[in-house]
Every structure is written in structure tokens, then in C-alpha cells.
Amino acid sequence: MRILVLEDNQFIASIITASLKSSESELLIVKDQFEAEKYFKEQIPDILISDIHMEQGTSLDFLKEVRKYPQTKVVVVSSDFERLMEVEENIGLKNWSYISKNNRKWLMLIKTEILSFLKANNSSTASPIS
């Protein structure tokens, strides 16, 4: 399983990496929407975890393109709840998930989304994520 993480905050990216490293997945962390676009088109990931706010703008244009790939599970995260709702209403698809980083259990919620995706797709890599 391929997981692409778009997160420009190095600290948060390292937390996500540490928590998903035991999942036996191919994990790629990128820090801007341009890098994400490049890697997304080269190897369409099974799961995309995307922050919205980047130092160089937002990932909104990238997320609009991702809509063309409904087979990819998308988890949008942000500390800006209103922006999350904007993405859900104007860009997202019904199978996308939206998680606020202001929720102190945000990392657990991301892991739950990944495990749900694995179970729904009968993945042989559906192992517990520590």
C-alpha cells in the first residue's frame, strides 16, 4: 500500500512517519503541493493524507486534481476548521475524511481511517499500526 503525506510542518510530518512506519506501507512525505502533484501522478497512492495550509499557499488546487482519482482514499487535515469545511463542501468527495488537528486525537483518527481503508479493500497488509 502506498501512502502519500503532504505536510510542510517537519515536526508533524515526523510524528506521522513514526506512527505509520510499522504499517508495512510505502510511505512518502512531501512538503509542498508541487512535490505532491509530481509524486501523485507518477505513482497514484492508495491513501493521501493532505494538510491544507502550506508555506507557499494551500493545497486546494492539488486537491481539486485528486478528485479525478476516486480510488485514492483522501484524508484532509488542518488546524483551520472552517477551511476543512470549505474543502468538504467545494472540493471533496463523499469518501474523503476531514480531521481537525485541533482535536487532540487527530493522529489516532488518521490511523483509524487507514485501517478502515485496508479492511474495506481486503488488504493483506492490514496489520495493526502502533
Characterization of the model:
The chain has about 130 residues and is an alpha/beta fold. The chain has a single domain, classed as Rossmann fold. The protein has five helices and seven strands, in the order E-H-E-H-E-E-E-H-E-H-E-H. The strands form two sheets. It has a five-stranded parallel β-sheet, sandwiched between helices. Strands 4-5 form a two-stranded antiparallel sheet. The longest helix is centred in the last third of the chain and has 15 residues. It is globular and about 30 Å long. InterPro entries: Bact_response_regulator, CheY-like_superfamily, Sig_transdc_resp-reg_receiver. This is Response regulator. Keywords: Phosphoprotein.
Task: Give the SSE layout.
Elements (H helix, E strand, L loop, with lengths): L1 E5 L3 H11 L5 E5 L2 H10 L4 E5 L1 E2 L2 E2 L1 H7 L6 E6 L2 H10 L6 E4 L5 H15 L10
Parallel strand pairs: 1-2, 1-3, 3-6, 6-7
Antiparallel strand pairs: 4-5
InterPro entries: Bact_response_regulator, CheY-like_superfamily, Sig_transdc_resp-reg_receiver
Protein name: Response regulator
Keywords: Phosphoprotein
